[in-house]
Every structure is written in C-alpha cells, then in structure tokens.
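Subject: complex prediction, re-run

Hi both,

The earlier run crashed halfway through, so I resubmitted it with identical inputs.
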Amino acid sequence: MASSAVNYAKENQQRFLGELKDLLRIPSISTAPEHKDDVRRAAEFCAANLRAIGMENVEIIPTKGHPLIYADWLHAAGKPTVLCYAHYDVQPPDPLNEWLSPPFEPTERNNNIYARGAVDDKGQLWMELKALESLMKGHGGKLPLNVKIILEGEEEVGGESIAAYVRKEKAKLKADFALVCDTELFAPNLPTLCVGLRGLVYTEIEAYGAKTDLHSGMYGGAAPNPFFALIEIISKLKDSKGHVLIPGFYKGLKAPSKDELKAWKRLPFNEEHYRKTEVGSKVLTGEPGYSVLYRTWARPTLEVHGMPGGFTAAGAKTVIPAKAAAKVSMRMVPNQDPDDILKKYTKYVAKLTPKGIETKIKVYSKGPACVVATNNRFIKAATEAMHEVFKKDTVFIRSGGSIPIVTDFQDVLKIPSVMMGFGLPDDNLHAPNEKFHIPNFYRGIESIIQFFEKLGE
Amino acid sequence: MASSAVNYAKENQQRFLGELKDLLRIPSISTAPEHKDDVRRAAEFCAANLRAIGMENVEIIPTKGHPLIYADWLHAAGKPTVLCYAHYDVQPPDPLNEWLSPPFEPTERNNNIYARGAVDDKGQLWMELKALESLMKGHGGKLPLNVKIILEGEEEVGGESIAAYVRKEKAKLKADFALVCDTELFAPNLPTLCVGLRGLVYTEIEAYGAKTDLHSGMYGGAAPNPFFALIEIISKLKDSKGHVLIPGFYKGLKAPSKDELKAWKRLPFNEEHYRKTEVGSKVLTGEPGYSVLYRTWARPTLEVHGMPGGFTAAGAKTVIPAKAAAKVSMRMVPNQDPDDILKKYTKYVAKLTPKGIETKIKVYSKGPACVVATNNRFIKAATEAMHEVFKKDTVFIRSGGSIPIVTDFQDVLKIPSVMMGFGLPDDNLHAPNEKFHIPNFYRGIESIIQFFEKLGE
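This time it finished cleanly. Structure:
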C-alpha cells in the first residue's frame, strides 16, 4: 500500500512538473560569464523552494564562482543522515539551430520535457526537492531521516567551489551516505544504480606562432601555422585505434573485477541498436579487444571538443592565424591520478610542440575516477525502493561521465554515495534537444520517497 | 619636367585621399552574404566616379555573385590599348578586437591609412581611377592611349564571375596588355614589378561522425570524433618540414630559372629582419634547402586556416561533435594544374578518412600559378615610369599570393599583365590593422600617369 507521501507525490505531479519548467526557463549556463546572474537566479529559485517545503537553515553560500545552496532538517533522532546532492547549472545550448524547440523554453513532446538541463541536472535536482516535500507532507511535517542538502552551480565547469567547501566544512556536511541524482537508467524501465564513474581532466592547448595574422599567399612556406602545430601534436596524443600515446598514461590503472565484467555481459545491451539509434554512426570506434561498455565505462580516453581560432565563418579567408587552440580532455579510470596524468600530458605536449610555436596549457577541470562498494545498507535500501517502484530487479552499472563530488564525498567525508539516476541513454545530455522522460521524473520522486522511508523504519 | 597630368595629381592629393576614405568606409566583404548590399554600394561608388572623370560606356554588370564594372575610352587612334584591373571587395576584418582603429573607419597614423582594403585593393584601385582622371585633365579631356577598365567584387572569394566574363567577352576586353594593381613593393622606396604569382585551391573538408552531438563522458571510447578524424587526415597531408605528402603533388612542377634565382639573391632581403618584424615568430618554417623567397614565391604549400565546429567559446564543454570542418588551402606554382591537384587531394583525403567518419570536400576557389615574361614593351615602359618616380632601378619579383585573373588575361585574352603594385611587406593584408602608406598611394598614381604617357608617345 502506498504511503501518504507517495500519494501526495502522485496527486501533485502536474504542479511539480510546472515548477520544474520554471527552473528550466532560467539559462544557468555556468561556463558563460554573461549568464552569471542567471546562475544566481537559479540558485535563489532552489533556495526559495527549500524554505517553502520546510527545510531549515537554508543558505545561499557565496563562492569565488557560482553560489552553493545548503539546507538541512535534523530532527529524526537515531535515524541515519543523508547528504543530498544535485546541481542547478547547465551546459551551453549550442549549436542552437539544431534544437527543435528553444533550449530555455521547456516544451512537452511524446511525454518528454525538452530543455537544456531537463535531465542534467535540474530535473533530477527537482526530484530530490519534491521527494522531500512529499515526505514532509506525508509524515506530519517531519522527515523519516535526517537530511542535509547541498546544491552546486559549477558542476559543468569543474565544481571547484563545492570541492573547496567540502574540504572546509567536513563537520557540517558529515552524513552517513550521500544521495546523488545525476545519472541514468541503463534502459527504459530498468531500475539502475550507478557504482562507478570515470575521472576527467579538461584542458585547452593554446598555440602561438607569428605575432599577427598573416596572408597565406605571402607567408605560406615560411611562417609557422599554429593550427598545423596543434594537428601535429594531437595526432600523436592518440592513435587511430583509440590508444592514448602519452608515455605512462596507462600505468597502474585498475581494471574492473571479473564478476563486474560478467554482470555487464548480462545487461540488456544491443551494440547494433546502440550504434544505430544512440550514436548514429556507420561504425563504433575505440580500442580493439574491449566491449563498448568496457570502453566507455572503464577505459581511459582522449577527445578533442573544439579548435577555436583562425577563420571559422562561412566562405574562405586565406589567413595563417597568429594563434589557435584546441580543447582536449581525458577521461580516467580508477588508480589514474589526475595530477600525474596532467603532468605527463603537459610534458608530452611540450615535447611534441614544433619549433616556431609556443604552447600553453589551460586546465578547466580535474577530478579522479570513483568506484562505490555495493554491499552497504544504503545501496541495499535504494535497490529495494527502486524494485518497488519499477517492479524489477535493480542493476549495477558504471558511467563514463565524471561526477568529481562523488570522489570527494568518499575521500574527504568518508561516506559512500548512492547514485540513483532516472535519465535515459538517449536523453541528449550536453547536446541539442536534451530531454527528460516525464514518467521517469515522477518515478524518481517516488523512488527517493520509498528509499528514505525504508531507511527511517 | 613634370607633365600637366602629374601636376594635377600632385595638386589634388588630399581630395584623392578623401575619396579613397569614402570607399574604404563601405564594408564590401565579398565572402559574407550579409554584406551583399555593401559590395553593391562599393561597385556603384566606383562606377559613379568613372562616369565623373570622363570614362565612357560605364556599366555595372550583374553576375551570379557580385557585380563587375566596365568602362572604356577608345579615342587614341594608333595608340596601344590597356585593360586596367583592380578589385573593390575586401577580406573579412576579424579578429575585430585586434584592430587599433575600426576596420571600416579609415584612420591616419604615421603617414599610413589604416582600414580593411586600404592596400588590398581599394587603395590601388583608386590609384588607377585617379591616374585616369589626372591624364584626362592634363591632356585636355583625352587619354594618351586607349583604356578599358574592368573592376571586380569577388577577388577575395575566387573571382568566378570575372573568369566567366573574360571567357564570354573576349572581343570586348581585347587589349594589348593589362595593368593589374594588386601587388607590393619589395621594400620601401624600391620600384618593383611582380612577374609571378602562385595559384590557389581553397577547400573545406567537412567531417561527419555521430548523428548528433554526444557527451564525451558517456560516449568517449565508442563514438567517432570528427575533429580527431580531421587531425589524423591533415597530419598526413604535410610533414613537419613543410613537404606536402599528397601523392603526385610535386609532379612536373616548373622551378624558377637560374637567372631568376640569381636575381632574387641580389634583392635587399634580410631573413632575420623578416622573421622578427614581419612574421614575428621564433623561427621560420618550411622546406629545408630552399631560401625564404624561393619557399614563399615558387614552392607549393598547404595551410589550415580554421577548424569550425564543436565548442569554441570560452570555458569547457564535454562534447563529441557530430560534425567538424577544416579550411585547407594549397598554393601552387607553374605547371601544377589546379584540377589535377584537387583530384589528387580529394582522392588522398578519402583514403585517409578513418572508418566511422564521412568526409566531403567543398571548393571555394581554384586558380593556377602564372609567370609573366619580362621582355615586352609594356613591362619596359612600366620599368622606366617607376624609375622616374622613384629615381631607382626597378626590380622584378614574384608574389606568393594568387591573382587568378592574370592567368586568365594570359590564357584567354592572350595578353601580358603588368603587375605594378605599391603596397609594403608589412601592410597587414588579410590581417588586423591593414594599412596603405599614403606616399605610396600618391607615387602609384604618378607612376601610372607616366607609364601611360610613355606608351602614348
């Protein structure tokens, strides 16, 4: 029989969705300086709702970057304490012309809600708040366990402020476990807990050649070309089979256990379907001898995301640019240390830099991989809660993405994280037409309610 | 003793410069569709002046692209006929933030006029018109020789319309020689005629991978990355020493004669000064065993001008873009056929394209190299005219740039071109802070007057 909290959540679904739409309308793009005020507005929106639903000690915490939000409710004596986490910032929406509806005007189609941040992570943040609201209402103004919540606005740009805050405020944030809602279901209707994440080092290599842009007719053959230098460098960072060539890059990395690899083989994964419908390319690429799940969850990679500089508008301009840049990131797996990788990468790039060119490396973000144990009571309660909502056994997966805060919770606060996420593999994270399947928004709220009720029994 | 025409030119220098400024204020950027009307305005400005100075049969000729302008004055019976050429379109001004004064607000500093198009080619176009005006005034409303003039607005985007027009209107454009003012002096105060140009093939390689932009965390290791594909391809188009690796690229090309190479060695060229003040890089690059002048005038090259796609704004975005592109051009020397080179290039790029990626090649422009004989009477008269203005012997040089129309004049109209240009090596063509040295604008007008007066004797 459904609890009063679950019933409350079911009765208020439409309102919850409407509130989420209001949050999605705020373009809280954390990487774009011109959206700084929007990021702040999104923070205030979340803080106001935390107050409204009865959370206590709500504060908007200023940082060097975008604000953090903290709140708590700590009156469930003898019950466990959860630290809820989500982020209210979003990726940039470009390329804008590929969106079927405007990225910051949430639009319903096919039972999905389309908007930048719909699933990553505003929709999942709002699940947490609405689960807490429902629990308050269903339990006579009380929560079944102690709750601390910390929301950040810099997840998409490296999360520096929350990392510093966690280190500074260990006692304040101390809890028995963390709930992180920023992952996805392995397949529609398949309850899923994520127990592993890759790390990330995101850099920009800037290459400088001549003192000014030069005409390629006049100077082609004598002037150094920063684009060609970047091409020479990056072509030697990874081979055509996806093997990273930075000396020492793979040293000491920890492979998944045999049991974990076996479990991955049992997952409902159709490589051909994945290729066709998710990736939509002629073939899949990557290191031979590793399955797709292995490659994307537990093997390190190196990618190029964009190469600013020179002439990029339509048409032709015969310029040898004075400078060019390349945004290059590396995903890491357990036992690869980001600082060590960055050191090896920086050294190798310097070595590969051709004469006449000067390179500099900017670091945008840096966080290690993380793997969570599956045998703690919190993971078990989460597994049961999702089973009740989905009526199916929960599977354990990893994600190729990076949530550095999970590593911080583990290493700094010494608490395990439950990564309970309700996105779908085709939700277009970081891409045009990002969406969140509306039934999953509701199931997420219900799963969190049941999870917390189980821990409060 | 100076002719009346020369005196008239001297007396009217300030007005001539003022008129040039008006022309420079029109942002006639031929590659930018949003400036189509500005290109048209520049054409109308030139046509109006041709009418005003007494040229006849002035017409603005519509084309598929930007208009051509034609005018003539053909009443010098028994005298030679010149076909004057220049272009009124300009390169885009970006990067805008590097201009010290706005690119379309001509500004005088240090006896230079700074503006996009100042020297390439509006300033030199205006020299031709002002020489014709001065000749008309100095010769009682007549010209000392027969003049046809053709001005184009697509030089910076490949010059397709004029190429077609020259082929269609051979009789109308027939002349004894052409005067092309779009080159530069080898050094300040050194009278120079350009007798060779490199050819150009300008392309854009478009690379397509997944059907949509993907999150590099989720898909890194399985999804093809078009940027990495372009990097792999382009890294194999040219080696680190500047040698182009396209099979058959160098086949049959014609090297300069021993005499020409000897004359180049006598030119006042200081490689260290060139490196420091013109290029401003730590070292010069290019094929070992060839001098700088040889490399930039008579050796083919391959350059990358920009790589649109993915995420290029400030900050980090973890995207594997669905598509990316690279603007790649090749400069060619005599006996390299652009169609043949393009075919070999296209075939090689296809061969280098990694699996999972589809590449397409767009061609923006295509024109062969050209070398002009130095022993005709027109080059001789030009040499003498410049000697009188500069009081120095004229040198013969080549240019690494491309003026496809010179090849068309030679191959289609069967006439030689006199490339008499008054730019300077540090004029920042195609770059921020393009300039034209004002005394050279006046000397150019005077040189053309004397050149035409000599041919009319």
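Residues 200-257+296-367 of chain B form a domain with the Alpha-Beta Plaits fold (CATH 3.30.70.360).

- K.
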